[in-house]
């Protein structure tokens, strides 16, 4: 069941989302080679609390951390650890904030340190651009399939692959709510849900360089990787649809 939000509820989520964005901005200035992902997670929790919120992710049953911090072929849900970041690692910070009864969810992927690789830079830029284009389709009267269609077209059109088992989602009082927001056309567009004002969704671009298939990483609970161990990335924003516009909450 899709839970549409009131304007007042969306205002609270917008406040929480901007606070979460400040947390991530602070983390991006701190992350450097030689740090462990556990150190990043501890800093993230301190910053969330400082912003007046709570971690969303450690409210998920069985997950005790504030962030998911994936490196290179890791795609999603990798817990923080004592793994040390190296110059040139591709890191995704996936993080959620619970603020005044509502969740927001945000992720971004970037290269740690100053090592440059044009192939990787293009890969990440395509993900960023695809998220921007997908958000433009998130408006009242459109269908969810129009968001999915743009994601599929952009990612495959640039020679990359959607990790199809991983999707975006509704969000609000629950971190994960209906509906699913697919990154590919899982059915004809005209058979997908019509977007209504009050819908709040986390749009996620989860993709890899070499495979649509995922695998569960051996020896690391929760962690999902690209099955061929090719580079993976995730870009995500929480977006609210209003009567006459859409708002990026994060």
Q: What gross morphology would you assign? A: globular
Q: Which structural class do the helices and strands define?
A: alpha+beta
Q: Give the strand content.
A: 25-35%
Could you list the spans in which at least 5 consecutive residues all have pLDDT below 50? none
Quaternary assembly: single chain
On the 0-100 scale, what is the average pLDDT?
97
Q: Which percent bin holds the helix content?
A: 25-40%
What would the CATH topology be? Creatine Amidinohydrolase
Number of helices: 4
Series of H and E elements: HHEEEEEHHEEEEEEEE
Supply the number of structural domains: 1
Give me the secondary-structure topology.
Blueprint: H1 7-30, H2 37-50, E1 54-55, E2 67-71, E3 74-76, E4 90-99, E5 102-111, H3 118-136, H4 144-157, E6 161-162, E7 168-170, E8 177-181, E9 200-208, E10 214-216, E11 224-226, E12 232-241, E13 246-248
Antiparallel strand pairs: 1-4, 2-4, 3-11, 4-5, 6-9, 7-8, 7-9, 9-12, 10-11, 12-13
Helix pairs in contact: 1-2, 3-4
Task: Name the features.
250 residues, alpha+beta, Creatine Amidinohydrolase, 6-stranded antiparallel sheet, 4-stranded antiparallel sheet, 4 helices, 13 strands, globular
What does this 3D model show about the protein?
With 250 residues, this protein is α+β, with helices and mostly antiparallel strands. The chain has a single domain (7-248), classed as Alpha-Beta Complex (Creatine Amidinohydrolase), CATH 3.90.230.10. Helices cover 28% and strands 27% of the residues. The chain has 4 helices and 13 strands. The protein has helices at residues 7-30, 37-50, 118-136, 144-157; strands at 54-55, 67-71, 74-76, 90-99, 102-111, 161-162, 168-170, 177-181, 200-208, 214-216, 224-226, 232-241, 246-248. The strands form 3 sheets. Strands 6, 7, 8, 9, 12 and 13 form a 6-stranded antiparallel beta sheet that branches. Strands 1, 2, 4 and 5 form a 4-stranded antiparallel beta sheet that branches. Strand 7 (168-170) and strand 8 form a beta hairpin. The chain is globular and about 45 Å long. The mean pLDDT is 97.
């Amino acid at each position: 069941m899709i839970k549409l939000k009131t304007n007042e509820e969306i205002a609270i989520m917008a406040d929480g989302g901007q606070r979460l964005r400040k947390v991530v901005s602070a983390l991006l200035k701190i992350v450097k080679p030689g740090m462990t992902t556990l150190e990043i997670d501890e800093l993230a929790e301190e910053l969330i609390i400082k912003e007046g919120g709570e971690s969303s992710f450690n409210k998920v049953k069985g997950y005790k951390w504030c962030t998911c911090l994936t490196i290179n072929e890791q795609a999603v849900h990798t817990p923080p650890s004592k793994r040390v970041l190296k110059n040139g690692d591709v890191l995704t910070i996936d993080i959620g904030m619970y603020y005044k009864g509502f969740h927001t969810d945000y992720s971004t992927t970037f290269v740690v340190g100053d090592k440059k690789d044009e192939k990787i830079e293009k890969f990440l830029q395509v993900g960023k651009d695809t998220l921007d284009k997908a958000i433009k389709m998130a408006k009242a009267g459109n269908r969810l399939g129009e968001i999915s269609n743009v994601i599929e077209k952009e990612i495959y059109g640039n020679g990359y692959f959607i990790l199809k088992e991983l999707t975006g989602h509704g969000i609000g009082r629950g971190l994960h709510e209906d509906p699913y927001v697919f990154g590919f056309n899982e059915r004809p567009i005209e058979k997908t849900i019509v977007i209504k004002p009050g819908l709040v969704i986390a749009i996620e671009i989860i993709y890899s360089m070499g495979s649509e298939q995922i695998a569960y990483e051996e020896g690391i609970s929760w962690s999902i990787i690209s099955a061929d161990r090719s580079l993976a990335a995730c870009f995500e924003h929480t977006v609210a649809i209003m009567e006459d516009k859409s708002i990026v909450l994060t």
